[in-house]
Amino acid sequence: MSQYHEPVEKLDEKALNISRALNSLKEEIEAVDWYNQRVVASQDPELKAIMAHNRDEEIEHAVMSIEWLRRNMDKWDEELRTYLFTEGPITELEEGATGGSNSDTSSSGLNIGNLK
Predict the structure, then answer these.
(1) Separation CA 63–CA 68 (nearest Å)
(2) What is the distance between the alpha carbons of residues 99 and 103, in angstroms, rounded to a whole number?
(3) Whole-model pTM?
(4) Maximal C-alpha separation, the chain
(5) Given its phi and psi angles, is residue 111 left (phi above 0), alpha (psi -120 to 50 degrees) or beta?
(6) Pairwise CA distance, residues 34 & 7, whole Å
């Protein structure tokens, strides 16, 4: 089964590379999960340390893929700048980045007022 949802001959090299990066990221995240479960379940301290090291290597690989996506795929840079290395409730960060909340009728946009 193909990893592509569109005919591969219709995809340019950039789209193919983005697909490669996204698939690699999925695989790295899955490996992080597997190693982390093994670390938690293991009772052997030395084995636990080895698997924790392996998990952390997979995290490094995932982060490298994310950085490549940030540099090469639209929207990643903007979203990462909105949500990473922030404080407070994650679900409220978008409001701060857009300059207001959905209930703020004075913010930019359609400015059609309260619909209640």
Answers:
(1) 9
(2) 12
(3) 0.79
(4) 63
(5) left
(6) 32
CB within 8 A of 101, min separation 6: which ones?
95, 107
CA distance 28 to 31: 5
**Helix segments in 1-116, DSSP class H:** 13-41, 45-72, 76-83, 93-98
Q: Within 13 Å and on the Cβ side, how many CA atoms surround 77?
A: 6
Q: Cβ–Cβ contacts within 10 Å for residue 73, how many? A: 15
Q: What is the pLDDT of residues 65-102, one digit of tens each?
A: 999 999 999 999 999 999 999 999 999 988 877 776 55
Domain boundaries, the chain: 14-77
Listed residue (90, 36, 86) closest to 59, CA to CA: 36
Residue 23 CA from chain centroid, whole number: 12
Tokens of 72: 């090469």
pLDDT tens digits for 18-43? Answer: 999 999 999 999 999 999 999 999 99
